[in-house]
Amino acid sequence: MKPDAPHPNLSPTAFWDVDMKTVDYNTNARFIIEKVMNYGLWDDILEILRYYGHDRVKTEVVQAAYLKKKTLSFCCAIFDLTPNQFRCYTRQQSNPLPWNY
Questions:
Q1: What residue ranges do the domains of the chain occupy?
Q2: Backbone angles phi and psi of 93, in degrees to 5
Q3: pTM for the model
Q4: What are the tens digits of pLDDT across the range 57-69?
């Protein structure tokens, strides 16, 4: 994380439901990274990688509660991981789907 940047410069695209003025960027890093990876723009992804660093983003995204399937595949590619290394993937596998009738 860069000490000279008070917070990442993110677009409101992923944060339509959040007042970004009240967010603590260190305490809520996982929330911010998860929202950006799922709903943010390409520039937002680059910004969180710049602000938090590759290792911190990787650590937080692996522990994310929810990632879209495309986001999970993207994260596997950029962080050189397999889906079963992600908490959201292993948790999803343990929840059976309801009957489809």
A1: 25-89
A2: -65, -25
A3: 0.82
A4: 999 999 999 999 9
